[in-house]
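Deviations from the work plan: none for this task. Representative record:
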Amino acid sequence: MNTEAPHSEKRPALPAEFGSLPKAPTGIDGLDEVTEGGLPRGRPTLICGPAGCGKTLLGLEFLVRGITEHGENGVFVAFEETREDLIANVESLGFDLAQLEADGQLAIDHVSIEPTEIEQSGEWDLEGLFIRLGASIDAVGADRVVIDTIENLFGAFPDKATLRAELRRLFRWLKDRGVTAIITGERGDGSLTRHGIEEYVSDCVIVLDHRVSEETSTRRLRILKYRGSLHGTNEYPFLIHRGGITVVPITSLGIEHDVSGERLSMGVARLDEMLGGRGVLRGSSILVSGTAGTGKSTIAAQFCDAACRRGERALYFAFEESEAQIVRNMASVGMDLGQWVEQGLLKFTCVRPSLAGLEAHLSSMQALVAEFNPSVVVIDPISDLLTAGASRDVSAMLTRQVDFLKVRGVTALFTSLDQHLQLEEANHQIAALIDVWLLVATQKANGERNRSLSVLKARGMAHSNQIREFLLTERGIEIAGIHRFEEVLTGSARIAQEEAHRRGNGGPAEASPGPAPELVAGVPRAGGAQ
Amino acid sequence: MTPESSPEPVDSAQETEVCQLRLYVAGQSPKSLKALVNLKRLCDEHLHTGYEIEVVDLVENPQRAADDEIIALPTLVRRLPAPLRKVIGDLSDTERVLCGLQLSPMENGALVDG
C-alpha cells in the first residue's frame, strides 16, 4: 500500500496526510465507516460491478443524503434509465427525487444514446456533455455528481481513441470543478470495467458484487483502492432495504465503542447480587442459554420489565411467541408487561426467522433499533436465527448485531436454546462477544426437576461462582437462598434444609424430608427467600 | 429500436423537400468554426434543392442540448426529411457526411438515397 509513498524523510508525515485528506461523507449507513469518512472530496470515485448490484442506487443515495444530510446539492447524469424510471425506482426507498428536483437541489439529466444514428466525419469531442453537465451543476449549485453508466458511450461512438481521450478530459474536468463525483461502470471479463475506465479514475475504486450462496443472495462491497487514505479492506455485506443501502462492517466497529461503568439491574435482586452485587454493565451483551423450559424467556422479560420500571425503553424481538402470548405468560409470574407496551416503553417484534434471509433480518432489526432507540434489546431466542442461514453467516451476523448494539450503548440480552450439538459451535463463536453468560438448567433430584442458574462468565465484574436454584413465582423470578450440602440443594431438599435452619438445626440430618412439599410456581415459601 | 431508423429508402417525393439541418456547436471553438465552414460548402455543392441551416450554440443555450440528445460536438442533425439523422465531427469528410445524412452526391446536384 505504501509503495508509492516517498522514502525516509517523508514517512513520518504520512499519518497527518491521511488525516487531512478531505472527504465527503456519503451519508450511506456503514459506508462512511469503511471508507473512514466518505469518498475523496472533489475527486471522482469509480463504482463498478455487475448488472443489478446496486450501483445506480448507491449513486442516487449518495446524492440524496448529500442534499438531506450534508447540504450538498447534486446532479445525476443517467445514460441508462430515464428520469421517470429513476424517480419511480427509488420511491419505495423513501427518496422523493421529484421533490428534490422541484426544490432546486437535484438535477437529473437523462442522456439517451442511440448508436445506430450516429455517423462520424472529422474531429469531435464530448463538449456537449461537458456543457450539459456544467449547466446542471451551475443550475443547482452542485457539489456532487453521479454519472451512471458512462461506459454506455462506448456503444455509441465508434472512435474509441477520441472517446478515451475525452473521458480522461472529463474526469480531469470534474476534478477542476471541485465536485465529488461517482462514476459507475459495468464489470467486464477479467477487468473491473468493460472498457477499462478504471485507468482514468485513480483516486478511489469501490467494487460491488452480488452473489448467491446457499440460496441466500448477498450483496458485497469492497474498497479496492483509496489513494491517500486508510480504508477497510474486507468485503462488506450490504443490504438494500426500505431506508436505502446499509453497508455492514463485520469487524470495523467492535472494539472501539465507549464503555460504561454504569450498572443495570436484571430485575432480580439476587441475580444482581450474583453479578457482583449491582447487575450488569450498561452496554454489555448478555447470553442466557439453557435447555427447553428453563425460564430463559422469563429472565429476558424480567430484564425488560426492570428497564421499563426505570423509565427506559425496551425492544423485544421474539422469534417463537407472539406478543399476546408473552404478555399472558409473564402475567402468570406476576409481570405486567402490558402496561409498558401501553406506555410505549416496551415494543415487541414477533417474526419467524425463516421468513426472511439473515441479512434482511439484521437490517430490519437495526432499523427498528435506530427508530425506537431502546436502552435494552432482547433477542429471544438467538438460536432460532440459525435456521435462517448457514452457521458461518449466523456467527458473522451475530457479531455485527452485537457490535451494532454495543456502539449504540444498548444493553442486549440474547437467549439461546442449547441442544448441545449443533448449537455449541455457534455459541462458542458468539461466546467471545458476550460479556455475561448465564446458564440455566434443570436439575433432577429427589424425583423432581428444579431450575438452577449460574454465571458462566461475567466480564469486568466480580461474580458468584455458585449454582443457584431459581423459581418462577407469582412475583416473578426468585433466586433461592443457598444451602450447601454436597450438591446444591434444590426443591424439597432445599426446603427441608430451610425448615431445619429455621428450627435452629442446621445439620444435614433433616435433609431427607418426610412428605415432600410440592414445589410449584406461585407457592411462596414463608421466609423462603431469607 | 424506433421505426424511423429502419433503413427505408427515402422516396423521390421527399428528396425534393427542403433539407432542414441543425448544427450544434460550442461557441467559437476551432472544431465548431471548421464544421460551420465545411457544412456551408457541402450544402452549396451538393444540396441544390434547397436547405436551411440552424446553428445552435450550446455555450449560449446549454438547455438545448437535450432537444436532440447532444453530447458530442459538433453535431449535425438532419431534422427533415425524416428520419432524423446525426453526424458528429467537424464535417471534414464530405462523403461521410452525405452518407450519414443518407444523401449521395450526383453530378447534376440532384439527390438520391445512399
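The CA atoms of residues 75 and 90 of chain B lie 8 Å apart.
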